[in-house]
Design brief:
Radius of gyration: 14 Å
CATH topology: Rossmann fold
Number of strands: 7
CATH architecture: 3-Layer(aba) Sandwich
Structural class: alpha/beta
Order of helices and strands: HEHEHEHEHEHEE
């Protein structure tokens, strides 16, 4: 997984994942990068965008799965059940090595996440995300960053 590889290579200790779904990425990072402390954010409910298959996801089950990860990993993880932009208000500026965006994929939402979470990065922090192959994500990311690196599984990275 690209995020775990980068975390180990760069010695990251603090990160955030926006959009948790069932917590599989969050769990993977916590299992494979023992020095990492994570913030995970998801609203665990339908958001009214057809591309998200609203009504097809088990939001309650996903919330429960993420809460189980939080209970298992204790002080290494904090799951925030709220909108991503709202959650940014509770995170100190300059405190994160990376932010991984995989929440609402609309252009407006991705741009808002980048704007809200960019100040949370340390001076050499990395903004990254998933699904750069979605036109809305691609357009938002390239509007905010003149140059991005595209990695495996449609992961994008920008410094």
């Amino acid at each position: 997984m690209v995020i775990a590889e980068e975390a180990v290579k760069r010695g990251w200790t603090h990160g955030a994942e926006l959009g948790l779904w069932d917590g599989r990425t969050l769990r993977y990072l916590l299992e494979h990068v023992p020095s990492l402390t994570m913030i995970g954010v998801d609203i665990f409910r339908d958001i009214g965008i057809p591309d998200y298959r609203d009504g097809a996801w088990d939001h309650a089950g996903n919330r429960e799965a993420c809460r189980a990860i939080e209970a298992e990993y204790g002080s290494r993880v904090r799951v925030m059940d709220m909108l991503t932009v709202q959650a940014a208000e509770d995170v100190p500026n300059g405190s994160l090595d990376f932010v991984f965006i995989d929440a609402d994929h609309s252009r407006t939402a991705v741009e808002a996440d980048i704007s809200a979470w960019r100040p949370k990065l340390k001076p050499n922090g990395v903004m990254m995300g998933h699904d750069i192959d979605w036109p809305s994500v691609h357009d938002a990311v390239t509007a905010c960053y003149p140059s991005v690196q595209i990695r495996a599984d449609n992961v994008w990275m920008a410094a």
